[in-house]
Amino acid sequence: MVREKREAYPRWGKDKLAVLLKREGIVLSVSKIGRIIGYLKARGVIREPIRAIKVCQRRWKRLYGIRKPRDYEVQAPGDLVEIDTLDVRPVPGVVLKQFTSRDVVSRWDCVELAHRATASTAKRLLDPILRRMTFAVRAIQVDGGSEFMAEFEEECRDRGIRLFILPPRSPN
Question: Which H helix or E strand runs over 88?
Fold first, then answer.
């Protein structure tokens, strides 16, 4: 009976199967059902359903941004400025995007707010951020977000600012 229920509901675990069997008058402990399922799997009578379909994500070709070279020296203010975004919710129903930039050496911070985090918004906010910095910015480091692609990359290239992209994090 356990095998029949498991074949009818292959994604259900031993807890749910115990409830189904109990409704039909078969009372087995959850651990007993687990042992039966294990035994059936070991004999090859039942198989585990495929859990997930692996999807290959497309890697976008960056126009200008590269990974930061290991030999790139960060010694003076402006050598590397990190920029990232954050959701800010001042009141219910209102979501603002905060663009935070921080110089790695001097720890100088600049914050700008926008309604959306897009590449054109990041490009537009680059000018006020660079004006607030009291030193020349030679390189910017960003995560791989879409708000730092296309127009933002072109603007960095046009201004002669090196653009470094952090490598994607592993899903673990």
Answer: strand 81-88
